[in-house]
C-alpha cells in the first residue's frame, strides 16, 4: 500500500505520455507553446515501467493523459502493456480528435472509461479557443467512443465567466441527451497568461449549479467517487453532472492521486511544485524496478497537505497543463 505522510492512501496515478497537442485547450492559454526535446521525454518502455512500479506498490487506477496522449507515436504499446496489469481501471483523458482512429483499439486494450475535453459547442468559438481545432473532430470522436462501447464517457469543460459560462446549460443538455456524464471545472492558476484576468473570469461551482437550476431539477448524488468531482443528477436523466472545485470546495483532504509528467517528474500535487525526478532513476538504474519503487515511496513523504490557489494573475505554478498531465 502506498501512503503519504498524512496517511492518505495513493491508489491512482495520472501518467502523461507526451507534452504535445494537436490543438490547445482552455488550460493552455500561452501565446506560444514550447515543447520538450524528445530525449527528455520518457520512452514508451519507461512509461510502462513507471506504471508497473506503481501497480506493484498498490495503485489500482491509471489514467493516461498528455498533452494529447493519442498523438504520441506508438502510444498503443503503453495501453496494451498497462492493460495487462492487475488494475481496477485503465482510463484516458483526450481532446477526442484522434478517437475515430483509436477508439476500438483502446477498448480492446482494456480502457473502460474516457474523459473528453469540450469547452464549447460553438464551432467558431471552438476554433478561436483552440486556434487550430475543429469542433467536428471532437464530435466525431465522441461518436466513435460511443460506437466502441466504453462503460462511461465523460465530457470535461473548464468554465470562464465571460468566455463560456453562458454555454453551460447547452453543454449539459448535449451531454444528457447523448447519455454522457459531464464535469465542470474551476480554472486553476497554471502558467502565465495574457488573454484574461483570472479574478474576473473565475466562475465557482456554486454559481454554475445556480445557473443550471434554472434549466434542470438537480439533486446531489449520495455515492462518492475517489476523484475530485462531486456529482449531481438531473430529473429523468441517468447521466451525472460533476463539479470539480479546487478553489471553492477544496478536496485535498481526500486526495488519492499523484501525476507523472511526460519527462518523468512525479508531481505530488497539482497546485504545488513538489516533485521527484523518476527519469533520473530510470536512466541511472535501467531495468531496476526496486530502485524505482524506493524513489516513489520516498517521494510520498513530501506530498503536501494541500494547495493554496488564489485568483492572482501572477502564476502560482509556471507549468501549463500540457506539461503537467491533464
Strand order of the largest sheet: 7-8-9-6-5-4-3-2-1-10-11-12
Beginning-to-end CA distance, first to last residue: 25 Å
* Rg for CA atoms: 19 Å
Q: Give the CATH level 1 class.
A: Alpha Beta
Mean pLDDT: 87
**Gross geometry:** globular
User: Care to count the β-strands?
Assistant: 12
**SSE string, helices as H and strands as E:** EHEHEHEHHEHEHHEEEEEEHHH
**Number of domain units:** 1
Write the CATH homologous superfamily.
Aldolase class I
Task: Please tell me the CATH architecture by its name.
Answer: Alpha-Beta Barrel
> At the third CATH level, what is the topology name?
TIM Barrel
Structure, explained:
By secondary structure, the protein is an alpha/beta fold. The chain contains eleven helices and twelve strands. Helix 1 packs parallel to helix 2. The longest helix is centred in the middle third of the chain and has 14 residues, at 135-148. Strands 7-8-9-6-5-4-3-2-1-10-11-12 form a twelve-stranded mixed beta sheet. It has a single domain, classed as Alpha-Beta Barrel (TIM Barrel). Helix 6 (168-178) links the parallel strand 5 and strand 6 (181-186).
